[in-house]
Amino acid sequence: MKIEAxxxxxxHVEPGMRLGIGTGSxxxxxxxxxxxxxxxxxxxxxxxxxxxxxxxxxxxxxxxxTLDEMPELDxxxxxxxxxxPGLALIKxxxxxxxxxxxxxxxxxxxxxxxxxxxxxxxxxxxxxxxEVNRFGLEATKRxxxxxxTALGQEALLALREASGKPFVTDGGHLIIDAxxxxxxDAEALALALNAIPGVVEHGLFLGLASRAIIAGGGxxxxxxx
Length: 225
Fold this sequence. Notes:
Shape: globular
Structural class: alpha/beta
Number of strands: 15
Number of helices: 6
Helix content: 25-40%
Largest sheet: 6 strands, mixed
Strand order of the largest sheet: 2-1-3-6-14-15
């Protein structure tokens, strides 16, 4: 289903486009299909949202550049961990949320590709990634806790690990995963997290996606914001 969603997203890619290229398993299927089109003569340039994505693009022959060299993008195609009403998203399961959000914000349009298991009535089942600075980690974690409780919510906060060590993002930061179960007010939570100095970015992507391409047992459907 991921492959079919990625294939449908290719219909929105036009010659000469400046693309933001996402991170994660579904985005990687898109990269593989895009590479086939490139080998057949499609000319595009992409800005990868992670070192992993950049490596795959280089391996498959998809031309990439940086956001400094190409600061305005036509379209970003990326996956999501959850897709809620109004195309509100939780992203960052792959640890690339900061670059993903920067790239999405620099794009005229953002298309999310996913299978239908990612559709939810309300965000929060998937733990919310919160990217934080290494300095003052414990103080930042407490500030996050207080901000959440001030909104009348509860969440279990856990420092993300990989191979028994703290997970480190491409930007050199750490990630705290906040397990809510249900987020009552995503916009209020986003504002509260943005106000914490030690928080670099969070995985609430609100008002960024304009279309979602969803693959399921009944085929492909597209949702617009």
